[in-house]
Amino acid sequence: MKRLAALPVLICCALIVPASLAAQQGHGSHSSSAQQQQHGGAQHHALGVRAFDRFHDVLHPLEHEALPKGDFKTIRARAAELVNLGRPITKMSVPRGASDAVMFKNKQKEFAKALANFRRDARNGTDEQLKTSYSAVHDSFEELAGMLPRG
Fold it and tell me: Is the backbone of residue 93 left (phi > 0), alpha (psi -120 to 50) or beta?
């Protein structure tokens, strides 16, 4: 009889413990996802257009690590790479579903000018000039990215 009384307890434990562990794991992965979003994980920033994603992969650590520390050496060292990754964005056709095709083309031109100024300042400009032109590249890119279709 004691064995029969213990059976429901064992069944409950067998059902509750795995469910509890699954919930903790789910919460843990949610927490990781939240941490990725907070720290700029690729999942949060995936823009869905390969050229934009590749550019952002280089831009993000410069914006959130190098620039706040005033690490212009790193920004200069990665400038050519960033400019090279930005060129396809300046030449691509308007993505299907972009919010405004004419505005997108105009923003591409602004982005191309910002990249040219950044390239110049990375080679020969002062740190202050580099900071200004880098910020223009960042802001211009964000404007273009904001026009991409969300899906």
Answer: beta
